[in-house]
From TrEMBL:
Record-level GO cellular component terms: cytoplasm
GO molecular function terms noted in the UniProt entry: alcohol dehydrogenase (NAD+) activity; zinc ion binding
Family the UniProt entry places it in: Belongs to the zinc-containing alcohol dehydrogenase family.
Enzyme class of the recorded protein, top EC level: oxidoreductase
Gene3D superfamilies xrefs: Medium-chain alcohol dehydrogenases, catalytic domain, NAD(P)-binding Rossmann-like Domain
InterPro entries attached to this UniProt entry: ADH-like_N, ADH_Zn_CS, ADH_Zn_typ-2, ER, GroES-like_sf, NAD(P)-bd_dom_sf
Domain Enoyl reductase (ER): 27-342
Reaction catalyzed: a primary alcohol + NAD(+) = an aldehyde + NADH + H(+); a secondary alcohol + NAD(+) = a ketone + NADH + H(+)
Domain of life assignment: Bacteria
Cofactor: Zn(2+)
Entry's EC annotation: 1.1.1.1
Name the UniProt record assigns to this protein: Probable alcohol dehydrogenase AdhA
PROSITE patterns per UniProt: ADH_ZINC
Naturally occurring in which organism (per UniProt): Streptomyces chattanoogensis
Length: 345
């Protein structure tokens, strides 16, 4: 298939950077304009079409995740068109649509990488944390960690798939949901509403527990069997559960809702403190508690193929790029329906 015509190349990089980490009300983001970066060996320069706003971006802006470098442009759910490619790039051509996700690089040689567990690589690097991300009109990506994306779907619908979708997919697999099992989902934002659809397509019964009435309504529209308050009890014992809300208080709640031998997967990169657990109430009967750390590229490939196969529905709340601070504030205040997505003007 012939590549699309080459998009216009920006004359500079305009976007937002985390200058002063702190509560969103304190204004941690600052508008920036920088020289357009040139792609190095194995790199792509994208003109950004859309970038999802992830809760990880909020954690970085508010300082829950300590910055790895000053004045970093956040954003790691990047959809764009290739406008330039460095030496050694063979998988993409000018005009191709490509996507950038959270995992940006690994060493490729440690025991984790060799075992197909590159998400645990000690030398791993991340988009929008170790290097500038997609809260801008242009972004650099390593071609080996970029995903080819289809032209027949809008950029705003594709963007949330690249982290919310991929991480949600890995969390679903980590939850060890058996065929036809009963899944509880705690919190129902960008990741959760995508993972729920994969579980439903695979024959699961899904119960959603979240504080947002709007999110509960969306869950029922997508096919959940029930939707209740985050601290409530599901209508039946759970084989598996995923905690998407970054609230440690919900860990014992979710563990108590598990049936014997059930598994709880905690999906976030940041979690508030977990209160004390009691062995008998929370872990006995071989209940399992697991964390989820980043993703592998294979997770991404599997999820994107699954999303295309099942016709996944992506609920988005678009914001112009110049309203990035508002998008972060709405995410912090649980005012986003589905996934927030920034769209350069």
């Amino acid at each position: 298939m012939a590549a699309a015509s080459a998009p216009d190349v920006p004359d500079a990089l305009s976007g937002w950077a985390v200058e002063r980490p702190g509560p969103v009300a304190s204004g941690p983001l600052a508008a920036v304009r920088r020289a357009l970066p040139a792609p190095g060996h194995g790199e792509l320069l994208l003109r950004v079409e859309a970038c999802g706003v992830c809760r990880t971006d909020l954690h970085l802006a508010e300082g829950d995740l300590p910055p790895h470098r000053p004045s970093t442009v956040p954003g790691h759910e990047i959809v764009g068109r290739v406008v330039a490619a460095g030496p050694g790039v063979t998988r993409f051509r000018i005009g191709d649509r490509a996507g950038g996700a959270w995992l940006r690089g690994t060493c490729g040689s440690c025991r984790y990488c060799r075992a197909g567990r590159e998400n645990l690589c000690p030398a791993s690097r991340y988009t929008g944390w170790d290097t500038d991300g997609g809260f801008a009109d242009a972004a650099l990506l390593p071609a080996d960690y970029a995903y080819p994306l289809p032209d027949d779907r809008s950029a705003t619908e594709l963007a949330p798939l690249l982290c919310a979708g991929i991480i949600g997919y890995r969390a679903l697999r980590r939850s060890a949901l058996p065929p036809g099992g009963r899944l509880g989902i705690y919190g129902f934002g960008a990741s959760a509403h995508l993972a729920a659809q994969v579980a439903l397509a695979e024959g699961a019964t899904v119960h959603v527990l979240t504080r947002s009435a709007q999110a509960r309504q969306l869950a029922l529209e997508l096919g959940a069997s029930s939707a209740g308050d985050a601290y409530g009890r599901p209508p039946e014992p759970l084989d598996s559960a995923i905690l998407f809300a970054p609230v440690g208080d919900l860990v014992p709640v979710a563990l108590e809702a598990l049936d014997r031998s059930g598994t709880l997967a905690v999906a976030g990169i940041h979690l508030s403190d977990i209160p004390p657990l009691t062995y008998r109430s929370h872990l006995f009967y071989e209940r399992n508690l697991r964390s989820v750390t980043s993703n592998t590229r294979e997770d991404g490939r599997e999820f994107l193929a699954t999303a295309a196969r099942i016709g996944i529905r992506v609920t988005v709340s678009p914001y112009p790029l110049d309203r990035a601070p508002e998008a972060l504030a709405d995410l912090a205040g649980d005012r986003v329906q589905g996934a927030a997505v920034l769209v350069p003007g």
